[in-house]
Write a structure and sequence with these properties.
This protein is α+β, with helices and mostly antiparallel strands. 18% of the residues lie in helices and 43% in strands. The strands form four sheets. Strands 10-6-2-3-4-18-17-16-11 form a nine-stranded antiparallel beta sheet. It has a nine-stranded antiparallel beta sheet with strand order 15-12-13-14-27-26-25-19-23.
């Protein structure tokens, strides 16, 4: 086999596909890329048995077709250092000796038979499945807004991923770790179908890092997995088994007190005060009045304390409540408007964080459980 290809195009594809490979694999073959050469296309595949990503690269002057495996780390490291120019790849069909040549350089190594690479077990094509097209931007926004709230408790597997609640008129992305919950609803596209699935953390990260925001993807959802196809990539990922909690029951419907505050001012104040929290719980105490917020933190182990005051607009009289500083920073950082709105009821009930204005085709809501405040 022999073909010519742009080193930059090959590096871009190989680098993206390598994101699927684990640092340690149970099967040695999974440390490799599978190269599948056809008439004018090279398909590069990587897998960890749960997720499989394939990138298509245009090639020229193809002589022969076939499959072979190459060490992923070696190929990516080499291509990263090559200048941006055309390279020639030769593969001996019998010995799988591989040569990469370009003007002024030649590199030789040995590949592995492509037949040894595990094939992605396709689900029964006759099984229940739904298909729809969606802009990548919508998927990335859904992941960006919810990824930080994904749980890491092995005893609650359904919470270790992002729920895709797909309805005919839009998609709702939800993540929770029992302390915080994020719900992002978007109508940027109308799937025209109904289903739900839980996408794990790793494939969610791969989706946002691999697919380009300005392209569309075709999504096929089956009972156990989803396949996303764009012009350059095909990505298949397995779902998390189990039932996601009924998120609508958790969200308070009657939080009568509304707090409006400048987002950047609140974020910076929480970061500063958060330096002095007790790392065991991260508690920041808030005393909220109609015109200002007073926040306090202290760490008795080191005799440190902090206090900040900033203006606000609050519809209640006075409320004392506590929140975890690290969680607050995550939530406030994810909201994008200049002002944010926090809906509260009493110190024992969760606070609802929303942007001052949602975009016309989306709705974002975040919920954070309070912490007990003995005294302010």
């Amino acid at each position: 086999m022999k073909f010519n290809v742009s080193s930059k195009a090959l590096y871009s594809a190989a680098s993206a596909v390598s994101k699927v490979i684990n640092s340690k694999n149970t099967l040695t073959i999974l440390n490799n890329f599978l190269f599948d050469l056809s008439e004018d296309k090279l398909a590069i595949t990587a897998s960890d048995l749960e997720n499989t990503l394939t990138a298509n690269v245009e090639v020229q002057n193809v002589d022969g077709t076939g499959k072979f495996c190459v060490d992923a780390r070696r190929v990516v490291d080499l291509l990263k250092e090559l200048p941006d120019m055309g390279i020639t790849v030769k593969v001996d069909d019998d010995t799988l000796a591989i040569e990469i040549e370009y003007p002024g350089g030649k590199f030789s190594f040995v590949g592995v038979s492509g037949n040894e690479y595990p094939q992605n077990s396709e689900e029964n094509p006759e099984g229940v499945q739904v298909e729809f097209d969606a802009p990548v931007e919508m998927i990335i926004k859904g992941i960006d807004n919810t990824l930080f709230a994904v749980g890491n408790d092995d005893l609650r597997p359904p919470m270790m991923g992002i729920l895709w609640d797909i309805k005919a008129d839009g998609i709702t992305f939800v993540a929770t770790d029992t302390r915080k919950l994020v719900k992002y609803h978007t109508t940027m596209t109308a799937p025209g179908v109904e289903c739900s699935c839980i996408v794990p953390l790793k494939p969610s990260t791969i989706m946002k890092n691999v697919f380009a925001k300005d392209e569309n993807i075709h999504i096929t959802i089956q009972p156990k997995s989803a396949t996303l196809r764009s012009d350059r990539f095909t990505f298949n990922c397995r779902f998390i088994k189990g039932n996601f909690p009924d998120y609508n029951r958790v969200i308070p419907t009657s939080n009568p007190y509304v707090l409006t505050v400048d987002r950047i001012s609140l974020l910076n104040a929480v970061k500063r005060v958060g330096v002095f929290v007790d790392p065991g719980h991260g508690l920041v105490k808030f005393k909220i009045t109609p015109t200002e917020i007073i926040m306090k933190a202290q760490d008795n182990n080191f005799c440190t304390s902090a206090r900040e005051t900033l203006p606000c607009d609050f519809t209640g009289q006075e409320l004392v409540i506590g929140f975890s500083a690290p969680y607050l920073v995550e939530i406030i950082s994810t909201l994008a408007t200049s002002n944010i709105i926090i809906k509260l009821s009493d110190p024992s009930r969760p606070g609802v964080f929303i942007p001052e204005e949602n975009t016309p085709d989306s709705e974002l809501l975040m919920l954070l459980m309070p912490m007990t405040v003995q005294e302010f």
